[in-house]
Amino acid sequence: MHIVERDGRKTRFTAHGTRLLEEVQQIVGTHDAALRRVMGESPADAVGCDPALTTATIEAVRALLGFRYMAPRAV
Fold this sequence. Notes:
This protein is mainly alpha-helical.
């Protein structure tokens, strides 16, 4: 599964990459909304991090590193 592809001298998201980006945006949005509900302030002013977001972030980074390993010249 490729998340980006070459478009001339640039790269662009594939359909899979676009879906991954939408999922990540939804995860971050849900996290931010939960922080606002619980803490009553903007997430930028809050200290700490939700363990679920940390896990999701680590998994996303692993996926991107795996992609980079499989296709180092794609980006």
